[in-house]
Structure formats: C-alpha cells, structure tokens
C-alpha cells in the first residue's frame, strides 16, 4: 500500500478517533481502527512515520523503527526530531522545516557510519500533520559511488593514455573529452577543444563526409585515413580508429589518432627503395644468367677441347709402347707408363667434371628402383678393373626406393668406387649397402659402409667438397670429385649427405632421399 494512501487512511482513522470521544462512539471501535491502521503500515516495505500537526509521532511501522536508529524505546507520542539521532536533527532540522513551510516537501539522505547504511528521508506536509517515508538506499548509493569511481578512473586513464584520443557525441558531433596526448598533437589545451564540433579538426568539408561514412548504431572499430589540421593551421596525415562507446550514459564515438605522416613518407621511401632493389636484382639476375651461360659454354668447350688432344696423347703412348716398348730401357718404360697413367687420370677428371657440371640440367624422372641389381652391375665393372681383388658385398635381397634412376646410379657408382679404392689394402675387405628410415615417414637413407682406411673426423666437413682430398693421391688415386657428385645428386633429390668414421678404421656414407614423388603409373622396381 502506498505511503500516501496510508496517510489518508491515517487521517480518516485519526478523525474517527476524535469522533470516538463523542457520545455514541465506543472505545472498541477506536481500537479496531488503530489496529487496522497499524496493520496497513506494517505491510509497507518502506519505513512510514505519521506525524500530527505538532510534529509528534502518531504511528510508525517496524521498518521505520529500524531505519531511524533511535535511542528512545517507545517512539509514539515523541517529537520526531527528538526521536532521530541528535546529529541528524542538528544537520537537517532547520532546512527541513524551512522547506516544508515553502514547498510542503523535503528530502535528505543520512549515513549511519556504524551500520554503513544510507537512509533516504522524505517528508510531506499536510493540514493535519506530516508523512515521513524512510528508504534504505545503501545499494543504490554504493552503486552510484562505484559508478562515479569507475568514471573517475576511466577519466584518469583516458587523460593519461599516451595514445592521442578524443570522444564526440553521436548526435550533436560535439567534442565530449580530449586527452592530453591529443591536445599535444593538435597544439591546443584539452579544455579549448571540448564543446567544439568535430568538423573543426578537419579541412573545409572533409570532416562531415568522413563522419557520415561511419556505420550507424554500435560498431566495434572503423579505420579511416584522412587529413586533419592543427591549431596553427598545419595539415597532418592521420589514421583514425573509431569505435562506438557509452560516455557518461551518452552514445558517443571514441577516436584514436595516429600521426602517420612520417610513416607514410617512410613507406613511400621504402617503396622507392624496393623498386630500385627489384631493378638491381633483375639486372644482377640477368648478368648472372649471362655469366652462367658463358661459364657453361666455356666449360663445355674446355672439356671437349681437352678430350681431343688427350685421346691423341693416349693413342700415341699406346702405339709407342706396342711398337717400340722393347727398345726402351727401364727408365724410358717408366716414363711411358707415367704418361699413360696421367692421361687416364686426366680423362677420369674430365668425365667427373662433365658429370658434376651437367647434373643440374638432367631431367628428373622419379621411379621405383631396386638397388640390388644396380649395385651388382657396378661391382662387376670394378672387378673387371682388378680381377685379383677379393671383396664381399653385403646387401639385403631387395633395396627398393623412389628416385631418379640415372642420377642415383651415378651417385652409387661414386660411393662404391670410393669404398673399393679405400679397402684395396685390406686382406679381407667388405662393402655393405643398405636402406634405413629417415627423420620423417617420407624419407629413406641410403648407406654405403666399408672397412677401409677411413678418415680423420676433424676433416669431416671437407669430405663432400670438390677437390678436397684427405689422403695422398699416391696412396689412393682419384679425382677428388666423387663425393661432391654424390652431394649434388642428394641435393637434386631434396636430400642431404653425411659421413661417419668408424673407431677401428672404415667409414659409412649416408644419403637421405625424400620419397614424396610417386612413380608414374606405379610401375614395379627396376634395376
């Protein structure tokens, strides 16, 4: 039941109680009327106090009794200002009585420190007295304080933020707040910008068109690149990040300002540098391609031109040995054998150089290959060169993998020739060829091991470099290009090479071969 309705009931009851003193009106009826009034007051969730014309308390409910925090026991019949705590009466009595005389109503809020409670007092004057309503507004007051504190923190953070920012009202487009960083960018005090229209920050006509391009309603972030002007009229290129927000319970737009003039100049300069760099790269690429073409032509001509006189030297040396060998003394025969050996060495060097040069231009044709027949054929050729050699070749019955057959045959020939050569001084020599899993599921590692002379681990990184020899050419003749060819084949397949020296002589050479390329048609392994 509303306090005003209760007050009217109280007036009616009070007038009835006055009539109760007249003949014919019983005391029982007056008591019943008072009980009905008290029951109605207790139904209210707010505190209600009814005062007579002299300001004395006629009736009140239990909620009012609690909210008044009075030190008196029985409040009925007590003066209202004597019933409330003394500090409340001292602070509010004068202003309340003056307001009731002038307007008939007055409100004030008091804080009970011990209970940490805020109570709103509302007084309304009437001819027969006054109505006092009391409400516990602690929750509302605390929420209001929290809101004010939050707004204060937001304002402090906004003002102190190093990023230039300002806000404007969505409807009027007037500036609501400007932080110190933004004021420094525009060269004017923050308070001088607050209240101005946003268009004043832009050159003539630019601001309205930019603001009209923002989406209506709520939006998260919109980026705009535009020109703005400072207080002295200087124009600057800026990037605006706009977001819709609520500021002091008003729909607004938060604008973050970044001066990108220097960055724009730097980007333009970088763009010019990139263009110049691309031109230089294209020029260097053309020069490199031209040089590579010239080098390839030179290499081809050199190898071809060397091969012809070499055949002549070898042919005349063979004819000399055949027709006049018996007429030569021991020294002459030694000279002749040196000529033949040197021509053979040079022929092998030219062949290896041609192989190393032309490997990158060979077409890649991955297919499934079985290495066992290939190894047996290569070993037969080595045995033909030295029929007296006894060497054991260890292999699995099948060694299948996907590779370019021609290129792998070249690499495998180099590895087997290398193992054959360095096991030549062993009475019981062996070569082991095998396959093992690589680092990933699509990789196979080819290994060729022997029990030969091995190598010094300190020079492992030089093994696969062209013309790098770790043994004397007198002890183990060779061109110094075999392992370089093996490395080139591995690289062309997308793999790599490495070697490990055994503790008691011998070495193992490894070549990883990615198996990503599937053979055309899924043909069976070929030899």
Low-confidence stretches: 18-25, 471-476, 519-524
Gyration radius, rounded: 53 Å
- Distinct helical segment count: 14
Number of DSSP E strands:
17
Strand content: 15-25%
In CATH, what is the homologous superfamily of the largest domain? Histidine kinase-like ATPase, C-terminal domain
How many separate domains?
Answer: 4
Mean of residue pLDDT? 81
The oligomeric state is: single chain
| Overall 3D shape | elongated
Class from helix and strand fractions: alpha+beta
Tell me the distance between the termini.
105 Å
- At CATH's second level, what is the architecture of the largest domain? 2-Layer Sandwich
What do we call the CATH topology of the largest domain? Heat Shock Protein 90
The top level CATH class name of the largest domain: Alpha Beta
Largest sheet: 5 strands, antiparallel
Portion of residues within helices: 40-55%
């Amino acid at each position: 039941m509303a306090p005003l309705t209760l007050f009217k009931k109280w007036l009616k009851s009070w007038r009835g109680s006055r009539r109760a003193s007249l003949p014919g009106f019983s005391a029982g009826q007056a008591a019943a009327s008072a009980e009905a009034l008290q029951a109605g007051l207790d139904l209210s969730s707010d505190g209600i106090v009814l005062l007579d014309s002299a300001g004395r308390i006629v009736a009140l409910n239990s909620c009012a009794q609690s909210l008044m925090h009075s030190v008196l026991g029985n409040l009925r019949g007590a003066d209202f200002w004597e019933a409330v705590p003394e500090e409340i009466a001292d602070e509010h009595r004068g202003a309340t009585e003056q307001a009731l005389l002038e307007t008939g109503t007055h409100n004030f809020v008091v804080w009970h420190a011990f209970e940490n409670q805020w109570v709103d007092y509302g007084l309304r004057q009437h001819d027969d007295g006054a109505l006092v309503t009391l409400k516990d507004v602690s929750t509302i007051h605390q929420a209001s304080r929290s809101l004010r504190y939050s707004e204060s923190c937001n304002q402090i953070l906004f003002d102190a933020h190093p990023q230039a920012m300002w806000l404007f009202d969505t409807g009027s487009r007037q500036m609501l707040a400007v932080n110190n960083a933004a004021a420094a960018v525009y060269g004017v005090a923050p308070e001088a910008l607050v209240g101005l229209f946003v268009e004043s920050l832009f050159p003539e006509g630019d601001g309205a068109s930019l603001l009209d391009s923002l989406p209506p309603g709520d939006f998260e972030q919109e980026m705009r690149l535009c020109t703005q002007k400072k207080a002295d009229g200087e124009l600057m290129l800026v990037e605006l990040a706009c977001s819709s927000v609520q500021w002091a319970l008003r729909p607004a737009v938060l604008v973050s300002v970044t001066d990108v003039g220097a960055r724009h100049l730097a980007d333009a300069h970088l763009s010019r540098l990139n263009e110049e760099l691309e031109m230089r790269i294209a020029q260097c690429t053309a020069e490199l391609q031209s040089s590579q073409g010239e080098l390839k032509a030179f290499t081809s001509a050199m190898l071809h031109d060397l091969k012809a006189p070499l055949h002549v030297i070898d042919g005349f040396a063979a004819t000399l040995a055949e027709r006049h060998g018996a007429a030569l003394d021991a020294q002459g025969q030694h000279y002749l054998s040196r000529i033949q050996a040197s021509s053979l060495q040079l022929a092998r060097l030219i062949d290896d150089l041609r192989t190393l040069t032309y490997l990158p231009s060979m077409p890649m044709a991955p297919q499934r290959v079985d290495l066992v027949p290939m190894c047996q054929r290569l070993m037969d050729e080595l045995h033909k060169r030295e029929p007296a050699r006894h060497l054991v070749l260890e292999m699995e019955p099948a060694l299948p993998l996907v590779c370019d057959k021609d290129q792998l045959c070249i690499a495998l020939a180099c590895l087997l020739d290398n193992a054959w050569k360095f096991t030549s001084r062993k009475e019981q020599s062996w070569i082991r060829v095998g396959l093992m899993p690589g680092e990933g599921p699509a990789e196979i590692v080819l290994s060729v091991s022997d029990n030969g002379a091995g190598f010094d681990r300190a020079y492992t990184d030089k093994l696969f470099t062209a013309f790098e020899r770790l043994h004397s050419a007198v002890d183990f003749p060779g061109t110094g290009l075999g392992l370089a060819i093996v490395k080139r084949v591995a690289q062309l397949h997308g793999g790599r090479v490495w070697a490990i020296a055994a503790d008691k002589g011998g070495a193992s050479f490894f070549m990883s071969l990615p198996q990503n390329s599937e053979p055309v048609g899924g043909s069976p392994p070929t030899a």
